[in-house]
Design brief:
- The protein is mainly alpha-helical and about 250 residues long.
- It has 2 domains: about 120 residues, no CATH class; about 110 residues, no CATH class.
- About 45% of the residues lie in helices and about 5% in strands.
- It has a 3-stranded antiparallel β-sheet. Strands 1-2 form a two-stranded antiparallel sheet.
- β1 and β2 form a beta hairpin.
- The longest helix is centred in the middle third of the chain and has 27 residues.
- The C terminus is likely disordered.
């Protein structure tokens, strides 16, 4: 059995990690030591006055002193102590606790870096460069897309059965007959589009997922991920005309 987590397991872990980070941000304050550990991806231990030699990660992974997270935490802790000494030399008062946001501002002002800092910036709604792509691991993107497609296929299949006025038990694998385009409609659901072409909704979704269109028709994607297909474009395709999509971008449907 492989020890590599599945996409579903990784998504669940990411959700749990986000919940953990939010709990830390809900705290009224962090001590500087706690802040150094948290921003480095380590759970702080109450009562500690120095960077420990081991502990648990915010992602529940066991860590030892050789971990790069502890290396990041020690560098940040050293930076804090230098900062503290310089303020004391100037006769300034130094706070022994910060709000989480104030500590993050100090980290950014000092241009300190840790491997986990981007995770916190993302939680705060800030990215290092607005023009950088929001990269999602391909395995997770594929899993999420497959899940959405499966749900869409189920919903459209239900709509197709209901629109035909037949119970699911009668919606068997018998040959489908083309149905007319609903009148006075600007757009069709995937189920209705499938009925007009006498194909399965899954065939349309598969073609759309592969090519970005089906028979040259590009759908409108609603915020809830449902797809709407132009009734006029469907009429043109049935008449043997171009649906309006540039020919060079149309791939042959399988």
């Amino acid at each position: 059995m492989s020890d590599i987590p599945t996409a579903q397991e990784r998504i669940a872990a990411a959700v749990q990690l986000r919940a953990t980070l939010i709990e830390y941000f809900k705290r009224e304050h962090w001590t500087p030591l706690e802040g150094c550990l948290i921003v480095s991806g380590i759970h702080p231990i109450p009562g500690d006055v120095a960077i420990p030699s081991g502990g648990g990660g915010l992602d529940n992974k066991p860590l030892n002193a050789a971990s790069s997270r502890f290396s990041d935490a020690r560098k940040m802790w050293d930076a804090w102590n230098e900062y503290r000494e310089s303020w004391l030399e100037d006769g300034e008062d130094v706070l022994d606790r910060f709000t989480p946001m104030a500590f993050m501002e100090w980290v950014d002002d000092c241009q300190l870096k840790t491997d986990w800092l981007p995770v916190f910036h993302d939680l705060m709604g800030r990215r290092d460069g607005a023009d950088k792509p929001d990269l999602i691991p391909s395995v997770i993107a594929e899993y999420a897309n497959a899940s959405v497609t499966s749900v869409d296929a189920i919903v459209d299949r239900i709509e197709s059965v209901v629109s035909n006025g037949k119970p699911a038990s009668q919606a068997t694998s018998t040959a489908r007959s083309p149905m007319p385009i609903p009148v006075n409609r600007d757009h069709l659901s995937t189920g209705e589009f499938a009925n007009v072409l006498a194909v399965e909704p899954q065939s349309i979704l598969k073609g759309y997922s592969k090519n970005g269109h089906y028979q040259g028709i590009r759908p409108t994607k609603l915020p809830n991920r449902r797809l709407l297909w132009s009734a006029e474009a469907v009429r043109r395709v049935l008449a043997g005309e171009s649906p309006g999509l540039p020919e060079a971008s149309i791939k042959k449907q399988s």
